[in-house]
Specification:
It is a single chain. Helix content is about 20%, strand content about 25%. It is of the alpha/beta class. The strands form 3 sheets. A 6-stranded mixed β-sheet has the order 5-4-3-2-1-14. A 6-stranded mixed β-sheet has the order 6-7-8-9-12-13. The protein has 7 helices and 14 strands. The protein starts with 6 loop residues before the first strand and ends in a 48-residue tail after the last helix.
Length: about 325
Amino acid sequence: MMPTSPVVAAAVQAAPVFLDCDATLEKVAGLVKEAAAGGAGLVVFPEAFVPGYPDWVWRTTPWSDQAWYERLYDQSVEVPGPATEALAAAAREASTYLSIGVNERDGGTLYNTLLYFAPDGSLLGKHRKLMPTGAERLVWGQGDGSGLVVFDTAFGRLGGLTCWENYMPLARAALYAQGIDVYLAPTWDNSDVWVPTLRHIAKEGRVYVIGVTSCLRGSDVPRDLPRADEIYGGDDDWMARGNTAICGPDGEIVAGPLEGQEGIVYAAVDADHARKVRRQFDPVGHYARSDVLRLVVDCGAKPLSVSAREAPEPRPPDDEPVDGR
């Protein structure tokens, strides 16, 4: 592992400009600048922040939301593309690491994707949510193991999982096995058990956990969408109240939780401290018992399309002789 230096992490709890990619990116750039001015070297945004989480799938009948989906599809992010260039510029201008959840458009499928940018604006990588939850499967495809990666940074090894992926023990173990120090958990979950989940992961992995949630009201939904007034109320109709929090490697809450308002939660992160805390419990070291328990992870990409050159030779029908005789 590389030597590390402490860093200030900023978890941004905010509302996107719902289903408007360009306006949301403009807001992101301002918030990244604000966080950097507050001393942050790592800025983290919520799940599917650009152009917003498709909350309506929990409030509508399946397949009755075509106009909503089409707006989301049109405003989603291609990787690479103009939106990633704008995000790269925001990271570069603020000279900070940036992680942000986006709706990624790849052909005819959308993915719930977490992007990572370095301070020079380079795209370090992306993670597609492995398993969309419940009604989310009407919107997003499934990711693969190629996104189960961590990145070496000046402040430690950085990675994360999205929302209820964090309830997948083997996915967590895959990140622990790569020596993760700073664990991101962007989410839409507003339940009263979410912050305890963050604390558990921090204690289990002996890592810093940055949990960040959006903060949206029904009044944030554009009224030109079909049945918007029927599906969403006004300011008192919360889509997400937020519960952004940062936890330390002993499972303690070091910042937040922030609820019911937009804001930025800051905390100092020291990976060297986290590594030393593992003296007591290292889930992939002295406490792993690899002689008894082992994890196999397939980190290969699983593209669904192949070129003509890669396609297999046509196979004759089973009842047709291969040599044609």
